[in-house]
Write a structure and sequence with these properties.
The structure holds 2 protein chains of 2 kinds.
Chain A: H1 3-19, E1 33-34, H2 37-43, E2 58-59, H3 61-71, H4 73-76, H5 112-122, H6 133-146, E3 156-157, E4 172-174, E5 197-199, H7 221-240, H8 257-274, H9 287-294, H10 298-307, E6 309-311, E7 314-316, H11 327-339
Antiparallel strand pairs in A: 2-3, 6-7
Helix pairs in contact in A: 3-6, 5-6, 8-11, 10-11
Chain B: H1 6-17, H2 22-36, H3 43-48, E1 102-103, E2 124-125, E3 139-143, E4 149-151, H4 153-158, E5 162-169, H5 186-190, E6 193-202, H6 203-210, E7 218-223, E8 230-234, H7 235-240, E9 243-248, E10 251-252, E11 262-264, E12 277-283, E13 298-299, E14 305-307, E15 315-320, E16 331-340, E17 346-352, E18 360-361, E19 363-365, E20 374-382, E21 387-395, H8 404-411, E22 424-427, E23 433-438
Parallel strand pairs in B: 3-12
Antiparallel strand pairs in B: 1-2, 3-4, 5-6, 6-9, 7-8, 7-12, 9-10, 9-11, 13-14, 15-16, 16-20, 17-18, 17-21, 19-20, 21-22, 22-23
Classes of the chains: A mainly alpha, B alpha+beta.
Chain lengths: 342, 439
């Protein structure tokens, strides 16, 4: 009983070796390991319009309002109007066929599920995947509420999110290109008398890439931001008659060990606001802004960074929303920003 | 001044260079050698700047022929010549709020052939470039499959590999000019475009390994970056030519391009080629995520919008002359450019000198590959006459690159994406080249 199969096995093995062909189990290579249910559950974060993937839970706009103001308003604006070039979330209804359409969650997005999915996978910008399901439901509800899609007290949940209809859903259709048929004409293809020639606008190309000292669109985001800040300061100065302070460019600083340790955290987290001055954040390199704050004591500056701050000059969520960072890491980053702004 | 021996020279240089950074060191070598060798050249100016004052021209023996250069592994991972430092990726800062979720363009005005060097491939990030340890990177395949699987990089590299030359283009390439011309540089009008030899495994092979179920009609591909960038791809594309790649142009992917693993959907919108690929879920319908609803959908004039506009349609542009490459003097000129199509191979390219009234066929040169950049050439003479220079490509499906007027008539000017219209360069009597639009 044992002998026959053994002979078969030996024979098959030798055939495979001679031919060099993989024949085990169809055309499978048997590479990779089974993905366990736990492994899949940890990574399977996607949501579909039919509600597939929604975690059990709920939240409403009232819950979401405070979360939104802490986590989202710095970039998206308190009313979803968008700060600077950050995305506008509200308004724009009825503008899609206008000369300048405003594409927002309310005016453009076809599905509410996309909002939950995107907030959970990518927001807040500096701390993706840091929100609880409860927070995501609340913020989603608040953004839908601001767009007048649900009521303030509507309890958004895994049971009902898929039933919400977005106003613009029916205005999407699947790609029907090619939509243009250009014949391969070789001679007399256009009427010269009716041809129009349009030239490029000046002051748009970021010529700072090519010309030293160019003052129209800069070569980097930082340069562009400084340019716009200075323009805005000049505009305001003309109105108020004040003098413009030139405190934006900082000399390379000698950094303490603590500050050096904070540089990486700064680049990975704080940079988004403190590099650009978003949400009233004191900008790195802006000596005046930092001197004012450090004047009140370094301990206060650090406690604002750790516990959050909200005032007339701007606001900051605790640890900038990066609750995964230790107190020490945040403190180091504060030292880096202060020392880089002398 | 006596000329030191080779040994003395090298030793002195090494000692002095030890405290300098790598770039400074190269500079130092140039300056240092000319100084120490007692050369007639005037320090760095002779090496770096204009030739009019140079003693490196005939009949003189140039300085580099009278001394030694650096030895092997002076620079273990080589870089381009210092004289090519202007050939870099560039961004248009006002396009985006900051640099982390932004885009840069390849300097296609400076490139030759059809391959984009790895350091110059255009960048597009939604949450910056993650730094991923390949030993800790995994690709998970699950959903409508018989055996959900998880692969290490080692597993993936054990599969039989394929290498293919394919272009990759952002669908927003050219999208700043729907309403009118505004970029005085080819890099900004067409630079969201690159072409590499990519190496990896067909995704089909991996899905067969997991056993795709008959109801599986779409996949969701997802990145491991902070954006967890995700797109839905129909299964027909996967079965056709989608790859999971780990290498580009002979080396492992650059971090900017998805190290250690990315998807590659040849000929389709660049953003469907998910970088830092960590997960593929098989489903029976698309997911309609943010980057395929809010973004990467094409708004038409009537307020409706196209979605899943995957294919990058046939396109071309003249790369020389162009605003960055003006014509320096009359005489022989080779008009050169790039053509590409997401629907297969380029069949031919025509060139017009009069803004599209009359056309003449150009020559395709070098490799003509499926969904790859293809180079074209037209040899002629320029004697200072103004030109309205255009190129018009057509592909093996018979599709001919459209005019801007034709696209605007169909789509209006608010669709942002997929502007593949015939591009016009105005060559002025001075040889300068301006970006214009003819309608």
């Amino acid at each position: 009983m044992f002998k026959l199969p053994n002979i078969f096995a030996v024979t098959l093995l030798s055939v495979a070796m001679v031919s060099g062909v993989v024949q085990a189990d169809g055309h499978k290579y048997n590479l990779g390991a089974p993905a366990s249910a736990d492994e899949i559950a940890g990574w399977d974060i996607d949501i579909r319009p039919d509600g597939m993937g929604l975690p059990v839970g709920s939240g409403n706009a009232l819950d979401g309002e405070a979360e939104y103001e802490t986590q989202c308003a710095a970039c998206h604006g308190v009313f979803g109007e968008g700060e600077g070039r950050w995305p506008v979330l509200t308004g724009g209804e009825g503008t899609l066929s206008d000369e300048r359409p405003v594409k927002t969650v309310g005016s453009y997005w076809p599905y509410a599920s996309t909002l939950f999915d995107y907030i959970r996978r990518a927001m807040p910008f500096t701390a993706p995947m840091s929100l609880s399901d409860k927070q995501v439901y609340g913020i989603t509800a608040y953004v839908l509420y601001m767009n007048e899609i649900i009521e303030e007290d509507f309890e958004l949940s895994n049971e009902n999110l898929a039933t919400i209809r977005m106003p613009n859903e029916d205005n999407f259709y699947v790609d029907d290109r090619p939509d243009v048929k250009n014949p391969r004409c070789m001679a007399d293809c256009a009427d010269v008398s009716s041809m129009m020639l349009a030239s490029s606008l000046s002051g748009v190309t970021p010529i700072g890439h090519f010309v030293e000292g160019a003052d129209a669109p800069a070569a980097s985001h930082e340069g562009q931001h400084n340019l716009e800040t200075q323009k805005e300061a000049k505009r305001k100065a003309e109105i108020t008659g004040e003098e413009v302070s030139e405190s934006l460019s900082a000399e390379p600083a000698m950094l303490s060990v603590q500050a050096q340790a904070g540089e990486e955290v700064y680049k990975g987290a704080c940079f988004v606001c403190h590099g650009s001055g978003l949400a009233g954040a004191p900008k790195v390199g802006d000596a005046t802004a930092w001197v004012e704050r450090v004047g009140q004591g370094m301990n206060l500056v650090i406690s604002h960074a750790l516990e959050g701050y909200s005032g007339s000059t701007g606001f900051m969520p605790p640890k900038g929303g990066r609750m995964d960072l230790s107190d020490e890491q945040v403190t180091n980053a504060v030292h880096f920003m202060v020392e880089s702004s002398h | 001044m006596t000329i030191p021996s080779t040994k003395e020279l090298l030793q002195t240089m090494q000692e002095a260079a030890e405290n300098l950074s790598k770039n400074d060191r190269r500079d130092f070598l140039r300056k240092g050698v000319s100084y120490l060798a007692g050369a007639a050249a005037v320090g760095s100016a002779g090496a770096a700047s204009g030739a009019s004052f140079s003693t490196n021209l005939p009949p003189n023996e140039p300085i580099w022929g009278r001394q030694l250069g650096s030895g092997v592994v002076a620079n273990p991972y080589g870089e381009p010549s210092h004289f090519e430092e202007h050939v870099v990726r560039r961004t248009v800062p006002w396009l985006t709020a900051e640099s982390i979720s932004s885009i840069s363009m390849s300097p296609i005005q400076n490139l030759q052939g059809i391959i984009t060097p790895n350091g110059l491939v255009f960048e597009r990030y939604h949450a910056g470039v993650p730094s991923i340890n390949p030993d800790e990177h995994r690709l998970m395949i699950h959903g409508l499959v018989d055996n959900p699987l998880i692969f290490t990089m080692e597993d993936l590299m054990r599969f039989p590999s394929v290498s293919e030359i394919k272009f990759i283009e952002c669908p927003a390439n050219g999208g700043m000019e729907w309403r009118g011309p505004q970029m005085e540089a080819l890099q900004f009008t067409h630079g969201m475009l690159s072409c590499c030899e990519w190496t990896g495994v067909p995704l089909k092979v991996l899905l067969e390994e997991a056993g795709i179920q008959p109801e599986g009609k779409w996949i969701l591909a997802e990145g491991a970056d902070g954006a967890h960038m995700s797109r839905s791809i129909p299964i027909e594309k996967i079965l056709d030519d989608t790859l999971v790649v780990y290498a580009q142009n002979g080396e492992m992917l650059r971090p900017e391009q998805g190290y250690p693993l990315r998807l590659l959907n040849p000929g389709w919108e660049g953003n469907t080629s998910i970088k830092w690929l960590r997960r593929i879920e098989v489903g029976d319908m698309p997911w309609h995520h943010r980057e395929e609803t809010s973004k990467y959908t094409d708004l038409m004039a009537d307020g409706r919008a196209r979605r899943f506009t995957f294919v990058q349609e046939c396109n071309s542009v003249i790369t020389s002359p162009c605003p960055e490459n003006p014509i320096k003097k009359p005489g022989f000129i080779e008009i050169e450019g790039l053509a590409w199509t997401g629907r297969g191979k380029i069949k031919g390219v025509d060139v017009s000198f009069d803004g599209g009234v009359n056309w003449q066929p150009a020559q395709l040169k070098g490799l003509v590959l499926d969904k790859a950049l293809t180079r074209f050439s037209f040899q002629t003479k320029w004697s200072g006459q103004p030109w309205l220079l255009q190129s018009r490509a057509y592909d093996e499906t018979g599709y001919v690159q459209p005019t801007l007027a034709q696209l605007r008539e169909q789509r209006g000017v608010n669709s942002i994406y997929h502007k593949n219209s015939i591009h016009t360069w105005q060559v002025q009597p001075t040889g300068e080249v301006k970006n214009v639009q003819v309608t």
